[in-house]
Amino acid sequence: MKELSFAIMELLAISLGLDRLYFKTFFEDGESIMRCNSYPPCNNSSLTLGTGPHSDPTSLTVLHQDQVGGLEVYLDNKWFAVRPRLDAFVINIGDTFMALSNGKYKSCLHRALVNREVERKSLVYFVNPKEDKTVKPTKKLCSSDEERKYPDFTWSDLYEFTQKHYRADVSTLQGFIPWFIAGKPSNY
Ligand SMILES: O=C(O)CCC(=O)C(=O)O
Ligand SMILES: [Fe+2]
């Protein structure tokens, strides 16, 4: 997973005109998370949460879903099913990478629906920087401070926000900024 994510990081760096090892170096000492999701069957949709619409607050997501299906991405005001393939991973950009690229790459809104008859499982690898590393786009992506779309922050700051103050959704990063600028109030 780590090797795959670094290969993708190299492609992302090349696509942005950066040194190919730029992101690999940035994430090399990172703290990635592997999560197993299990969705029991439920035939009453009003009782079912699944995974609600959100973008991942993390940097890069490598996801494998089983053959049941249920992952959807939002594009042009519509939800599209991501067809399960045993031989493929789904790669998503997360909010932290969006900030690191100064908004040039967008995090992706997605959700997971629950199946009425069978349990569904997915395995997700989230790439993160080291918790105290400053997330700040390189000057090559924004030559002046005025071009900055997000303040400097650390993964630890954003993680704290999503764990204690905010359930990740479509606008986690927009919600995070005022809380962060206000000095991370605990009564938020
Ligand atoms: O189960 C899935 O397919 C999606 C899970 C997901 O979006 C997440 O864990 O962040
Ligand atoms: Fe997700």
Comma- or semicolon-separated keywords:
188 residues, alpha+beta, Jelly Rolls, 4-stranded antiparallel sheet, 5 helices, 24% strand, binds 2-oxoglutaric acid, binds fe (ii) ion
What does this structure look like?
The chain is an alpha+beta fold. The chain has one domain: B-lactam Antibiotic, Isopenicillin N Synthase, Chain (Jelly Rolls), CATH 2.60.120.330. It has helices at 2-15, 22-27, 95-100, 155-164, 172-181, and strands at residues 33-39, 51-54, 60-65, 71-75, 78-81, 90-93, 110-112, 120-127, 134-135, 153-154. A 4-stranded antiparallel β-sheet has the order 1-8-3-6. A 4-stranded antiparallel β-sheet has the order 2-7-4-5, with no helix packed on it. Helix 4 (155-164) packs across helix 5 (172-181). The model has no long low-confidence stretch (mean pLDDT 94). Fe (ii) ion (FE2) is lined by residues 54, 56, 110. It comes from Arachis hypogaea (Peanut). Residues 29-129 form the Fe2OG dioxygenase domain. Pfam families: 2OG-FeII_Oxy (PF03171). This is Fe2OG dioxygenase domain-containing protein.
Summarize the topology:
Layout: H1 2-15, H2 22-27, E1 33-39, E2 51-54, E3 60-65, E4 71-75, E5 78-81, E6 90-93, H3 95-100, E7 110-112, E8 120-127, E9 134-135, E10 153-154, H4 155-164, H5 172-181
Bound molecules: 2-oxoglutaric acid and fe (ii) ion.
The site of 2-oxoglutaric acid (AKG) has 11 residues, from strand 1, strand 3, strand 7 and strand 8.
